[in-house]
Amino acid sequence: MPSLTTFLLFALATFLLTVSPGPGVLYVTARGLSQGRAAGFASMLGIESGEVVWIAAAATGVAALLSTSTAALGILRWAGAAYLVYLGVQRWRQAEEPPAARRAALATIFAQGFVTQIFNPKVAVFFVAFLPQFLNPAQPIPAQVAALGAVYVAVAVAVDTSYVLAASTISKRFLASRTVQRRTGRVAAATYMALGVAAAASGIKKP
Questions:
Q1: Could you tell me the pTM of the whole model?
Q2: Alpha carbon separation from 30 to 44, 119, 125, 168, 190 (Å, rounded)
Q3: What average pLDDT does this structure show over 172-192?
Q4: Sequence spans of domains, the chain
Q5: Least C-beta-crowded within 10 Å: which of 14, 52, 81, 160?
């Protein structure tokens, strides 16, 4: 079992990862802004479910296998980039539609959050390259990953809940205007696409 110092350092690293803007934070915030608290929490559950998959992958050694395969990481990066651009295009189209037509079902929001985090390059790098630094090879790896994974999820839920509550509050108070809703949707869409392009560009090696 990891030491208390390891837990604290890992919790700090997790906080810095989850609080910084990225595909997961953007998705949760955008949904909270556009559809309110219920949609924000549905997106958060999807995001956290994707992270549980990464934790399970790390515990079973899949993450270690990915770290040795440049091709696999490349596919993951490009798939994530393409999905982010796709979400951006969809979000832009929804911003131009009447309010009633742009509300997605909670199940759809959950699924999109799940896929977003599965293909999130930031989370992939964290579990493939960073998490192993907190593991003691002399102790059972799966148990350590499970313990640290529980810390990761707890911190991520706390951070994402804060984003959801803040976004839904802003949505209620300031987004009654259709003009503001449209502009907010466009900004979210542009950010999705920019993140996708950035993720793709990070995988292009200069000659």
A1: 0.68
A2: 11, 18, 24, 10, 12
A3: 66
A4: 4-201
A5: 52
